Amino acid sequence: MWAFIHKLGSPKWFYAISARLTPWFWAAAAVLLVVGSVWGLAFAPSDYQQGNSFRIIYVHVPAAILAQSCFAALAVAGGIYLIWKIKLADMAAAVIAPFGAAMTFVALFSGAVWGVPTWGTWWVWDARLTSMLIQLFLYFGVIALRGAFASRDSGAKAASVLALVGVVNIPIIKYSVEWWNTLHQPATFTLTERPAMPADMWLPLLVMVLGFYCFFIALTLTRTRSEILRRESAKRWVRDLADGHAGGRR
Amino acid sequence: MQVVEPRTGLAVAVRATIKRDLTLMLRRRGEVINPLVFFALVITLFPLGISPDTALLAEIAPGLLWVAALLATQLSLDVLFRSDFDDGSLEQLLLAPQPLPALVLSKVLVHWLLTGLPLAVMAPLLGIMLALPVESYAVLALSLALGSASLSLIGAIGAALTVGLARGGVLLSLLVLPLYIPILIFGAGAVQAAVLGASAAPHLALLGALLAMALMLAPWAIAAALRISING
Amino acid sequence: MAFESLTALLAMGGHAPYVWSAWGVAAALLIVSVAHARAERRQLIRELQRRNRRERNLSERETDER
């Protein structure tokens, strides 16, 4: 078991394995996203209350789910890095954070845009949007802290600690904001919580969520591989690897 | 000749840390007073920026007081470890045989005694200026005393993470302020409830729960962060 | 198909600006991240190759001089 974990943690081994896996994830992401988009945009029935504006759900919900999953992944990677000193975990964390921030932004933007036809205004201090906004600030904090240190190791460790602190706080922030929200503006029209969404509405949503996940995994694998090339560039096997690579020369 | 071993128990170390920090802080009185002046100044700005209308001010006073107190605490965080970092005594603290979380907890305690508690005592005074109803003064002070302890604990994590950085100030607020939000919500909620004549007990209980959690987890995070800042 | 024609699909029942801007931003961010990942990888490999070549040239020159 331990041997396996340490093997997985070795950049060389990971580089070889991920080379085989990555194309599959890219392919799956492409297929799922195209199918989900066409299905969601053109074939899913329109909502009886919100009309066609509800089709924003197919990007809003996957982005929101990814935004949260990315933070959890960030914290897990940070924990692995701090406890077992596996550098690979930190390389992954370094590439997950910007993508998570991007997804949080997509969720916020699509939520705000969706607010115009449903609430009649761009921004409402709705519980979900508010905690999304706070989460965006948490992402900025983690990214900024990593960049602030002169030594890469210190920055990595500090960002890992902050990610762990943040992941403990996110549920507390979420519940406190929800509680604050119900106190100040009762019975607003919530965006996504609707009982009994028919299958031809939520099936494309499921496809989109899976597509976003595959995209996330593929992107993380690809960029972690790049990160290995960057950080391990002094190693013999990385140098040999570059020579065997025709794609780089143009 | 008899060799007297120095006493090295945890209680001795904690007491010594508290005494040392208190002495140092009381010698640099400016650093204790500045957050209080900042608090008063910010509260003075609001009526000038919004309106001197007492009805309006009374309505928004709980939130204003809490936000201003929160920013004052945040501003005072930078000095928490800075001077110890500069003169090297932070490294001594890390090398001490006693568990680091207990030692940093005593440092945070001193920080709270000299910023959070004075802010809580001062807040009702500013409440008068914002025409806050008299019934809520006790809750205001109590909620600030309880909440600022959590603010000190959480803020110390950020201060420990940024103490090694030359320009950590703005970064510190970026790290810490999002984490302050639950405390702000329940703290301001407690005062608001008191203003409306409802019981503030649930809010205060929640603030207490947050403090209990922060007490449980923050010392370890602070200790880990300090080790990273010092040892890299 | 929920729409009769392509124009109806594009019009989104009057909600076009909202639906298409939300989808557009999401698509743009995904595409940008793919493009960035590709460019980053290609640049890193090119850099490594350049370094290899430089070192090879250096060692060749050293043997020539000898």
Automatic annotation (TrEMBL), chain A:
Protein name: Heme exporter protein C
Superkingdom, taxonomy of origin: Bacteria
Membrane topology: Multi-pass membrane protein
NCBIfam families given in the database record: ccmC (TIGR01191)
Keyword line: Cell inner membrane, Cell membrane, Cytochrome c-type biogenesis, Membrane, Transmembrane, Transmembrane helix, Transport
Family: Belongs to the CcmC/CycZ/HelC family.
Any Pfam family hit: Cytochrom_C_asm
Chief localization: membrane
Annotated TM spans: 21-44, 56-84, 91-117, 129-149, 161-181, 201-221
GO biological process, one term: cytochrome complex assembly
Gene Ontology MF annotations: heme binding; heme transmembrane transporter activity
GO cellular component, one term: plasma membrane
TrEMBL record, chain B:
Source taxonomy: Bacteria, Pseudomonadati, Pseudomonadota, Gammaproteobacteria, Oceanospirillales
GO biological processes: cytochrome c biosynthetic process; cytochrome complex assembly
Protein purpose: Required for the export of heme to the periplasm for the biogenesis of c-type cytochromes.
Pfam families xrefs: CcmB
The protein's name: Heme exporter protein B
Sequence intervals crossing the membrane: 32-51, 63-81, 102-131, 137-163, 170-198, 204-226
Organism: Modicisalibacter xianhensis
UniProt entry tagged with the keyword Ribonucleoprotein: no
Molecular functions (GO terms): heme transmembrane transporter activity
Topology in membrane: Multi-pass membrane protein
InterPro entries, per database record: Cyt_c_biogenesis_CcmB, Cyt_c_CcmB_bac
Family listed: Belongs to the CcmB/CycW/HelB family.
Keywords from the named record: Cell inner membrane, Cell membrane, Cytochrome c-type biogenesis, Membrane, Transmembrane, Transmembrane helix, Transport
Main location: membrane
Subcellular location: Cell inner membrane
A single cellular component GO annotation: plasma membrane
UniProtKB/TrEMBL annotation, chain C:
Pfam families: CcmD
InterPro entries cross-referenced by the UniProt entry: Haem_export_protD_CcmD (IPR007078), Heme_exporter_D (IPR052075)
GO cellular component: plasma membrane
Topology relative to the membrane: Single-pass membrane protein
Compartments where found: Cell inner membrane
Protein's GO biological process: cytochrome c biosynthetic process; cytochrome complex assembly; heme transport
Residues spanning the membrane: 20-39
Main location: membrane
Regions annotated as coiled coil: 34-65
Domain of life: Bacteria
The entry's keywords: Cell inner membrane, Cell membrane, Coiled coil, Cytochrome c-type biogenesis, Membrane, Transmembrane, Transmembrane helix, Transport
Role of this protein: Required for the export of heme to the periplasm for the biogenesis of c-type cytochromes.
Family: Belongs to the CcmD/CycX/HelD family.
Protein name: Heme exporter protein D
Taxonomic source organism: Modicisalibacter xianhensis
